[in-house]
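Hi R.,

Here are the chain sequences for the assembly we discussed:
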Amino acid sequence: MTCREFEYFAPASVGQCTALLKTYGSRAKILAGGMSLIPVMKLRLGAPAYLIDINGISGLDYIRETRDSLRIGALTRHHALETSSLVRRKEPLLAETAAWIGDPQVRNRGTIGGALVHADPSGDWGATILAMRGEMKLRGPARERVIAADNFFVDTFTSAAKGNELLVEVRIPVPRRRSGGSYMKLERKSGDFATVGVATQISLDEEGVCDYAGIGLTAVGMTNIRAKGAEAALLGKVPTDSTIEDAAEAASEDASPMSDPLRGSVEYKKAMTKVFTRRGLQLAVKRAKGVA
Amino acid sequence: MAKRAPKSSKKRGKKARHVKVSLNGSIFEADVEPRLLLVDLIRDVAGLTGTHVGCDTSNCGACTVLVDGQSVKSCSMFAVQVNGSKVQTIEGLAEDGDLHPMQSAFWENHGLQCGFCTPGMIIQASWLLKQNPNPTDDQIRAGISGNLCRCTGYVNIVKSIKAAAKEMRR
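And here is the predicted structure of the full complex:
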């Protein structure tokens, strides 16, 4: 279908953008990659009267290293995160997640910031950002604020970003020594949304005891979910097949999927959450030990 | 006394915007509605119908073109977004009447049947080889995972891309 009519702005700066947001408020939508927004508009599921295209704003597309984090500009494309040697070295879970998003053309346009604010419960980034305890920096007309991942995914397609705020940066702590992670996605076909997606990030201390566990879930809740029960099943223990099995079982309890004719029943999705959490943790542990 | 139109009938922005783009190496300009899709600019306004509309749901990749060297689905961009950019379509591949090696490879290796997916496939494959001039079969399959073909089962498409890669590495 054709979109409804809208007025189009292409601001050259964040300041111009927030001024436009101040003027048009909830009648406006930000256009970043457009890989979620434009299909929504073509189906007329959404019809913003004002579209603010931020692709011309320079200085929002970057991957920077600080002492203990990676700072990623909100306009950074999935493809850049998939292929960046810095990301692959320092935060390989990010690169692995990016590779599962959509398809190559989608990854050329889609952005991490747009995906996070879109807050699709089937979005892949949300699970990984939760698992890695990322933070989102928002800029409004008057001030900036930083929101932790745990507080960012408010409801289905609803992030904590207010209508007059622009997400400008995503901050992700660099994992400590002896860390490993994985992103695994069950999909019906190539390029599909997840039936289930699981992001895992764990760290081991000198005795091999798990001292950090981050597990995020995709497509099994009203938002991306942090599997806190699964994390608790791992913390303070040496990860064995048995503790991983407990964590996988706990993850299926943490999940609250909906039954749907396309991707399966509640029972099936919970069962797959368990399978993919188990597989993801096994791989994460191997990577943390440096044997995978 | 003048009547005031009820709020619900307030007219939406209809202002035409000027788009100036380098299209297959030549400047192309038009005044368009913001909601005009890039694929419709290419097909209906510029008259280049080699780029196809396959699905309307951003799935099939038949609309794939290059924008500033990146392969994108032109059904999922607005024409106004490419103002000032370089766009390359399937019509821009051949040089001086000589087929691009990718086009020759699809011809020689029977990489198409109905041909509907083919322009998008060729454009995407040409982008893929710029990223990776010597891809494995698996890398090729992953590289064209955004392009659907209903005819071939992809076997000869992969073969064609592999052959083109070999030719282009010479």
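The helical segments of chain B are 38-45, 101-108, 118-131, 137-143, 155-169. The first strand of chain B starts at residue 17 and ends at 23.

Let me know if anything looks off.

Best,
T.
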